[in-house]
Each structure stands twice: as C-alpha cells, then as structure tokens.
Design brief:
Blueprint lengths: L14 H13 L12 H8 L3 H13 L3 E3 L5 E3 L20 E2 L14 H13 L11 H13 L7 E4 L2 H12 L5 E6 L3 H9 L3 E8 L2 E2 L1 H9 L4 E5 L12 H12 L5 E5 L20 E6 L1 H4 L6 E5 L1 H13 L6 H12 L5 H21 L11 E5 L3 H10 L2 E2 L1 E2 L10 E5 L8 H11 L10
Parallel strand pairs: 3-13, 5-6, 5-8, 8-9, 9-10
Antiparallel strand pairs: 1-2, 4-11, 6-7, 10-11, 12-15, 14-15
C-alpha cells in the first residue's frame, strides 16, 4: 500500500512512521501544546491502516513524553512536549511589564568570573587536557567532598555531570526501566516533570508543605511500587520548601522500610540558602545527592558535583563517559577557583534573597494572601483560578509563572521569582497580587 497523507497532515503506514509524522508536526509548531489528536479509528480510516497501528503509534509518543492520554477525553499534545523548544512556549510580554516569572538568579549576586577564567586558561595553556585523562579534577573532587562532609553527607565517591538534571537523568536510567514509577514532589520542578515521560517513567505525585515532602504521601507512593524518590533539600522550586530536621527524620523512618528505593536529593540551592542541610542520603541502599553550580554561580556554568553509593556514582559516571565523556576541565578549573577563593559571599547572598523572599511573604500576609517561600528565590501563591490571576497581574504590570507547569495533581497557584526585585518593590507587587487573587486558607500544597 502506498504512502498516505491524511487531512491532518499525518502520514505513514507503520506505527513508527505515523509517530514520526505526528512528532514532526509538533516540532514544526503545526500541532500546538494541548492540541487534541484524532481518535484512533478516525486517523486509521484516513491512513487506511488498522486502528491498532495508530494505537501503537500513540503509545510510542506517550512513552517518549510527546503526548498524554486521558481515557475517554482522548490523546493530546503534552503542555511541554519533548519535541518542542520550551523557551518558545512563553508569551511575549507587553512593554513595561516587570517579569518575575523566570526562576533566574539575581545577576548582581553572581561572583565575577574574570580571574577564575583567566586562571583556568593559563592552566590549560601550560598543560592542555587531552583524551585519556581523568574526568574529574583532583582539587575539585577534594573541595566537593569537604563540603559534603561539612554538611554531614555520608561518605561516598564524588562524581561530576553537566548540571543537576543531567545527573538525575543518568541515575534514573542506571537503576530504573521504562514503565517504572518515580515519586516526585507536587508542586515540583517542571523540567523533572518533562524528563520522566521522556524516559518512559511514570511520576507518582507526593504532596509538599513548607518542610518538604509529606511523609504519609511518600509512604503511599512507595507502597504502591515507586522505585525511586526525588527530593529537593532546600529552595524547592516552586514552593521554597526546605527539609527540616524533624521532617528528614520522619522521611528516613519511612525509607527504613523501603531499602531498595533509589533516593535522589537535589541540593541546587547550595550557596544561596541560609538554612542547614538535613540530608536523607544513606537511608537506602542506592542514593545520590547532587549540587548544581547554576543558581549560585551562574546558569551558564553547566556543572554539578554529586556523591552517592559507589554503585550509583559509578553507573552515572559510566553513562556520562559514554556520552559527553567529561565536563570541560576549563569549566572545572573555573569553579575550583571560585570555591577555593570563596568568591561567593554565601552569607550575604542568602541574606539578600531572604530579605526579598520573606519580605514578600510578609507583605502578602498583611494583605490577607497566604504564600509560601521558606528558602530559595521563589514564592508560591495559592490561587483559585490561575488563568485569571496571571491575566490580572499582567494587566497590573507583573508577569508571574502560572502554576500549571509545576503541578501534577496539586492545587492551583502562581510562582513569583524575587530575584529581579528590590525590597522597595515588594509593597507594589503585594498590592497587585492581593488584587488579583482571592485569599483562601490552605495547609498543604497537595
């Protein structure tokens, strides 16, 4: 049978061909995020194939994180499909609108890189790094391990990847198989929500409050078969939650009954949070704690150090060597210089973020609006209607991030990034938020 083109613009006779055609349409923007796909039988009739072939094509796309299915409501393109450039999904802001939606750090608080880059370049000129050399610099490894020791992270080898999400992806692939379930915070990190379906993994949402994941929700997810748990230690995105000492003890008690679960901790707020670390590391047989340099030292420093049990670190390192091979030693030497010379004033940085974050939460409370932001650079505001709140704030001159991109099953909200703000901006923003949302009481985000 010949190559058929449907009115939808899709083509192909086999499941792989049909899936590729749909994915191409999404990548070109012909199918927008959220667009509904035709029913199996309808598309099968147009392509003159068996409906089971279309069903198989849809399964391929679903497993790759391109589409999602909702029973009788059919299949639709995911809000942030793997094939779409996510940066292109955001709206263009009108002139004069203050953007507090991005999640970026305050550039004024990032350390200058001139001396660090110059020293790295001099070292490279004297001794260029060639193929076959150790992937991790010895001084960087020593400094990273010393920092882990200072925070009472259990002993383990040190590894290096190109960012926290890179480490998380490699750890999941190293231990899990497509179809496995991963317990994740909800609300939680949007990029992680994108990653899991792209790996063929299924998220199990776990409610979060100001002290981190709620223990009985974690217990439920693990009892229902989740093979991994991902926790943000501090500066949780988007809620600002941070593990307290008491919450960490409760979670370790839960994990005692699930020793085979892979526990991954994301400490991306290292270097900008005033709160101490209360790690879960070592509670189970396989674990990893990863620290990115992006938030404290700059997003373009694509590097994350990690530690964990020897098997996990070895598997992550092995998979990294099969791909990029190593993280640039120029980059490693730059970060090593910053750490060795203490180029980042951690106390001043954390105090600056805290003043703006706590100030906004307090200003909202004074206006009858509950908000959350225990650590980090974001404030989470529960709302009754996200679309209405975002629209009203935009009309008032403020662009916030809609909570839908950070949620699986949890209640609606909006995220405000305080990095672009000065303390004197907080009253005006609080006034605008109060006018845009209907205050309501909430205990947990889930």
């Amino acid at each position: 049978m010949g190559f058929v083109v449907a009115p939808y613009g899709f083509s192909g006779q086999g499941a792989a061909e049909i899936a590729a055609s749909i994915e191409e349409a999404i990548g070109r923007g012909v199918l927008a995020p959220g667009a509904v796909l035709p029913p199996h039988r309808e598309l099968a009739a147009e392509l003159a194939v068996n409906p089971n072939t279309v069903a198989a094509a849809y399964r391929r796309l679903r497993d790759r994180g391109v589409i999602e299915t909702a029973g009788r409501r059919g299949s639709r393109v995911r809000p942030r499909p793997v094939t779409t450039v996510h940066d292109a999904l955001g709206p263009q802001l009108p002139p004069g609108v203050r953007d507090v939606s991005t999640g970026n750090p305050d550039t004024a608080l990032l350390p200058p890189l001139g001396k660090a880059l110059a020293e790295a370049a001099e070292r490279h000129a004297a001794q260029p790094v060639l193929y076959g050399q150790a992937p991790l610099g010895s001084e960087l490894s020593r400094l990273a391990r010393a920092a882990f020791d200072a925070d009472k992270v259990p002993e383990g080898p040190v590894g290096l990847t190109s960012g926290a999400l890179d480490a998380i992806e490699r750890a999941l692939v190293a231990h899990l198989r497509p179809g496995d379930t991963v317990a994740v915070e909800d609300p939680g990190w949007a990029s992680l929500f994108d990653l899991l379906p792209g790996l063929g993994l299924r998220p199990a949402p776990v409610a979060v409050d100001d002290e981190g994941p709620v223990p009985h929700h974690v217990e439920t997810a693990l009892r229902q078969g989740a093979r991994a748990l991902i926790v943000t230690d501090r500066g949780q995105n988007p809620t600002g939650a941070a593990l307290s000492s008491a919450r960490a003890r409760e979670l370790r008690a839960v994990l005692d009954d699930h020793p085979k679960v892979l526990v991954i901790e994301d400490d991306h707020a290292y270097g900008l949070s005033e709160l101490p670390l209360h790690p879960l590391a070592g509670s189970t047989r396989h674990w990893m704690l990863v620290r990115s340099t992006a938030k404290a030292y700059g997003p373009d420093l694509r590097m994350a150090v990690l530690t964990g049990d020897p098997v996990t670190v070895d598997r992550v390192g092995g998979r990294h060597r099969l791909g990029p091979g190593w993280v640039s030693h120029l980059l490693q030497d730059t970060v090593t210089h910053l750490w060795r010379t203490r180029a980042l004033d951690i106390l001043a940085v954390s105090a600056s973020y805290a003043a703006r974050r706590d100030g906004l939460v307090q200003a909202l409370a004074e206006r009858g609006v509950p908000a959350h932001g225990r650590s980090g650079m974001n404030v989470w505001v529960p709302v009754a209607d996200e679309t209405a709140a975002v629209t009203r704030l935009l009309q008032s001159g403020w662009a916030v991030a809609p909570g839908a991109r950070f949620r699986l099953r949890s209640a609606a909200g909006v995220r405000v990034t305080i990095s672009p703000l000065a303390v004197q901006d907080l009253p005006a923003l609080a006034d605008a938020v109060a006018a845009a949302v209907r205050p309501h009481r909430t205990v947990r985000f889930g």
